[in-house]
Amino acid sequence: MQTQRLTTRVATSEPRFVPYPAPGPDAPNVLMVVLDDIGFAQLGCFGAGFRTPNIDRVAAQGLRYNRFHVTAVCSATRAALLTGRNHHAVGMGVTQEAALGFPGYHGRIPPSAATLARVLREHGYNTMAVGKWHLTPKGEYSAAGPFDRWPLGLGFERYYGFLGAETNHWAPELVRDNTHVEPPSSPEEGYHLTEDLVDQAIRMIRDQQQAAARKPFFCYLATGAAHAPHQVTEEWVAPYRGRFDDGWEEWRRRAFERQVAEGVVPPGTVLTERPPWVPDWATLSDDERRLFARYMEVFAGFVTHTDHHLGRLFDFLDEQGVADDTLVMVLSDNGASAEGGPTGTLNEAAGWLGMTEGVDEALAHLDDIGGPDANNHYPWGWAWAGNAPLRLWKRYAWLGGVRTPLVVRWGDRLAGPGGVRPQFCHAVDLYATVLEAAGVEAPETVDGVSQQPVDGASMLDSFTDPDAAEHRVLQYFEMMGSRGIYHDGWKAVTDHVANQFGERDHLVGSFDFDTDRWSLFRLADDFSESTDVADEHPDVVRRLEGLWWAEAGRNNVLPLFEFPDSMAHLHPGEFPPPGAATYRPGGGPVQESQLPAALGGFTMTAYVEVPVGGAEGIVTALGDRHGGWACYLLDGRPTATFALLDGAVRVAGPDPLSPGAHVLEVRYEPGRAARAVVAVDGADVAEAPLPGLVFFPNLSTAGAGLLVGRDRGIPVSRDYRPPFPFTGVLDRVEIRSGRPDARPQDDTSLKAAVASD
């Protein structure tokens, strides 16, 4: 019997190659641009009347969808876009600032809902994300992660942007891939976030194309604009001076006329009436009109500036020769934002707490609006106008909160360029649409995990057929207790008013789920949700309400979110903040979410050595002049500044520190007689009353971090200019919480809508 010999040589062996994953043969590149807080009427091609020529150009070459819907807030819409599932079904019932211990609200996209980036990557795409993320629980922003829910952990290969709800456009909190990084330049050097983000998107696409032009890419670009703070240089604001002097009613009427003329809204659409909580412009004082118009001038300039830089990206696609092979989608995550309150604010975070400044004070800073010295947001009259012809705004299930612009372009793959498509569609549908365009099927399993059903349905047929049948006949809505449902041309919505931003002091409606009334609209004939026909069709109301409860059960909507009670159930996170910690100079920012809690008071102790001749500079700094605190030596004197939302409190020792070793201490002591204290070598040397609660919501939403031995960006105090490095020897800083378990929900007097961005 002859024994078969084993093959031991390459020359006589047969190779077996594992095939590379690949999409369909006609798979496009995909560019998804997600704008922030842009209302239905706030783009030129949707009737705005202010300049967005580059997005308008994409619309003229492509299509506009006038019945595209989202979830009413940022995180929830982004989760729906990227997973193709309803937001509660993937744990994103509200925003990451309010991740709760309930299945529909935990803020953690599960492995059973692999993202669009993850699926495309597994089929041969390069994937890159740029800009606002807002899908990571804020307790996971730190340099220790965990990184599973950062962009690279959810399917993207490259990332540059900011993790939080918002950030300062002059001095953002930036991340590259899995590392916190400094902005490439300072506000004084002309830095602006939108320009930087577009630069990074162009660079990523260029690098990818030069390395593997035959490989398709998915670029997800989410601008910080036009979310507050509305910030842009004066050159962009100047063209809009005087353009809003006749008020929000007139601007809204003109926008509506443009919408009708351009076919963005169908003939016969009713322009809904001004609600009683939006003041009649004619009743305002001259000072109020001047201030409110300025807020809107800045916003318009901000939008035009954003469009300008997006135009650079669109031009780059043309220059690369890939524009016709790129499926471009431009949309907004929710309707226009009313978080500036009735009168607008110079400091958006203060507005969350109902601490907006008076008109006289704001007028004194009129020229600061839009610049680094302001964190501004316009009055809610402009949000109402910006959603023309619809009702209400962001955070509500009414159309003003959930119907936003959608522009689509894909070379000659679309029929009737410049047209308007009327099919009802939703953010969850873009996932399925992109996969079908790429020739990719939604996977049954990913990494061995069975995938939950995809809620979206492809709208690709409507790209080529203006009369394509609606692919979606049922969609529920819910956000912070505001409930709605669409079914086969009907929409029902409740009159619930959320307990946030002081809106229950102004808005008319129900304050209790048990007393909510369902209104009914025949959207097939009533584009703007103008005429309530609930009394004429009680049977339809009952049927739709029953459908809503069924969808709520299927998607983990219950229990309903209500501020502030729900905040008692915040998800604790993997590593709760420490009670005390030590920090040394030379590192990156330590995220606010991982610092010892400040709500119950804290003590900062620094061990320093002053050389002969004295020292100056930052010991430690957190935040900026819009909210935060810092300890520093100024002309050698130990100084602490608390930049509270309604003003700054400064405490300074009387004498410079002498040469030698010292123990420097700053204490925040809360209570009825709250105070800030500066101590040197165990002896108190200065103190000042510290009224109110030391709570900085802007730090939480922006993901700001503590710096040791230096500052950057916008300073906490006008006493210094960053980086203002410490010129002595700074060994270490210790921070100890006076009450480690203190959290914002422990004080129900907080009116902050920290769950709303």
TrEMBL record:
<dbReference type="InterPro" id="IPR017850">
    <property type="entry name" value="Alkaline_phosphatase_core_sf"/>
</dbReference>
<feature type="compositionally biased region" description="Basic and acidic residues">
    <location>
        <begin position="737"/>
        <end position="749"/>
    </location>
</feature>
<keyword id="KW-0106">Calcium</keyword>
<keyword id="KW-0378">Hydrolase</keyword>
<comment type="similarity">
    <text>Belongs to the sulfatase family.</text>
</comment>
<feature type="region of interest" description="Disordered">
    <location>
        <begin position="737"/>
        <end position="757"/>
    </location>
</feature>
<keyword id="KW-0479">Metal-binding</keyword>
<dbReference type="InterPro" id="IPR024607">
    <property type="entry name" value="Sulfatase_CS"/>
</dbReference>
<feature type="domain" description="Sulfatase N-terminal">
    <location>
        <begin position="28"/>
        <end position="440"/>
    </location>
</feature>
<dbReference type="Pfam" id="PF00884">
    <property type="entry name" value="Sulfatase"/>
</dbReference>
<dbReference type="InterPro" id="IPR000917">
    <property type="entry name" value="Sulfatase_N"/>
</dbReference>
<protein>
    <submittedName>
        <fullName>Arylsulfatase</fullName>
    </submittedName>
</protein>
<dbReference type="InterPro" id="IPR050738">
    <property type="entry name" value="Sulfatase"/>
</dbReference>
